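Lab notebook, bench 4. The sequencing result for the construct came back, and we need a structural model before the next group meeting so we can plan mutations. Quick request posted to the team channel:

Model the 3D structure of this chain.
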Amino acid sequence: MTEGPAEAGAESPADSPVAENPRLKEYDGEGITVTFEPRRCLHAAECVHGLPEVFDLSRRPWVLPDAAASERVAEVVRRCPSGALRYHPPADGGAEERPEVPTTVRRGPAGQLVVRGDLVVSGERGDRHETRVTLCGCGASRNQPYCDHSGRCAEPDDEVPGSR
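Done. Here's the predicted structure in token form:
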């Protein structure tokens, strides 16, 4: 397991997610590796509600991929609307996350765009292949183009029933 930012001088394989994004945390399991990008997390809590034995904020490491069947872990990770949680198989094979077909775009109550599908998102780190993202709809995010709830997206919409 790799937890925390990649250390200066530490080598990651060039094709590893950690090499692509040094802020990415990686949790290796026997049948699945879960990655977490903290800056993208919008605290939807799909993970902790879906599999509390795997995702537990009160312990370190907070992700234990082997605490449930890898298929179940993958299913819960796919619920993460922001794409902060992702998964990939271990080096010896396994199922990759497949994008939803057709691609869907919906506007959240505060203006964010929740997008699922086969995506290429352009941002400060260049183009990234994604399957799930929540994009900023108000322009105030410090993590463009992703929503970080720092602008109007963080405020409840009084005109939308059930918002926040």
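The chain is about 10% helix and 25% strand.
Will bring this to the meeting.
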